[in-house]
């Protein structure tokens, strides 16, 4: 039987495809949430017991935890690790913020361009979202009359959580808690922390940790844990079906988030490595998932601005096509060139001590 550890270091996998599917799931969910109908009418949400967009974001964090943990092991340098994370997140974010502000100022806002660009709210939106100080959602005079008013890019909220996960992983790595007995200690502490905060929500008006932080940290943790204990994790279709059944049976219950995270984690790793052959050809295309995720929300809001009564499925199809164009441009002109530059920088830093030692 195949185990996850057998695929350690295998570069031919389906993670790019999975991230693209997750991004499309977010577009699908927002097509309902931003419409006059609302997400409550989404048939997939009714069946799954949770928002399709929420499950997609969970999958993003699972994949991120798995791959970023591997990155930490490869880099062996805090500088390299931090630089890799910054170059992955910031260029695409800068691009979408610049695109949004310019398009809003000249085409989407009810204010004239001069008033829009003079407004402090405009630049607060730009720099606070870029630095991930606080997620800002509105721009002056933009989308105020939409079915879901004022929100310009509701997808940006997850990026702050992503950066928090990177920081937490780096701190744990520096303290030596990503291997050996200390890792087992951390796993035990995390399980107690998660269960304690989950149960606290039953009798406390306000839980000590937000639902978002609890859910996303669990997903990131499960992804990272799979990197460490992959040699013990079998990949079998029967186990995938069992976890899927447990998720569906737990709908509406206290443990739904836990079972959903377990099922999604297992499904991600199963789909990433077990299907082979023609499906791997997707990797030749490029990684457009980040651009799809970043650009979709404002594009969907523009569609609803022009055609507020358009049905969710029509918006999903139209927005997916328009967003894909933006994602392709973002990947080839901005994200990939800077990622390649980052790799060259990190390779130079890695080689420097070796060269110095050889001369000595």
UniProtKB/TrEMBL annotation:
GO terms for biological process: polysaccharide biosynthetic process. GO terms for cellular component: membrane. The chain crosses the membrane at residues 16-34, 46-68, 89-108, 163-180, 185-207, 238-254, 260-278, 313-334. Residues 14-331 form the Acyltransferase domain. The keyword Acyltransferase applies. Keywords: Acyltransferase, Hydrolase, Membrane, Transferase, Transmembrane, Transmembrane helix. One of its GO terms (molecular function) is hydrolase activity. Pfam families: Acyl_transf_3. Signal peptide: none annotated. This is Peptidoglycan/LPS O-acetylase OafA/YrhL, contains acyltransferase and SGNH-hydrolase domains.
